[in-house]
Amino acid sequence: MNAWIEKQRHLIDFTLASLARRRTKNFGLLLVYTLLVFVLASVALYTHALRQEAAQVLKQSPEIILQRMVAGRHDLIPPGYIEKIGRIRGVQAIEGRLWGYYYDPVVKANYTFMAPAAEAVRPGTLTVGPAVARSRGLAPGNTISFRAYSGKLFSFTVAGVLPHSSELVSADLVLMSEADFRAFFAYPAGHHTDIALSVANPLEVRNVAAKLAAVLPDSRPILREEVLRTYASVFDWREGIVLALLSAAIFAFAILAWEKASGLSAEEKREIGILKAIGWETGDIIKMKLWEGGLISFTAFLVGFIAAYVQVFRFGAPLFEPVLKGWSVLYPRFELVPAIDSLQVATLFFFTVFPYMAAVLVPIWRAAITDPDAAMRS
Amino acid sequence: MRLRPSSIAFVGIGLAAAGFAATFLDAALLRERGAPHLEARGTLAARLGLTDLALFTEARYTRHPSQADLHSAFQDHPVALEHFPTGSLLPPPAPLIAHYERLDRKTAAPD
Amino acid sequence: MIELTQIRKAFNQGQPNEFWALNGIDLAIEAKKVTAFRGPSGSGKTTLLTIVGCLARPTSGRVKLAGDDISGLPERFLTDIRRSTFGFVFQQFNLIKGLSALDNVMLPAFPTGRPHRELRERSESLLDRLKLAHRREARVEWLSGGEQQRVAIARALVNDPKVLIADEPTANLDTALSREFMGILESLNAEGRTVILSSHDPLVVESAAVDCVVSMRDGQLTRD
Question: What ipTM does this complex have?
Answer without folding.
Answer: 0.91
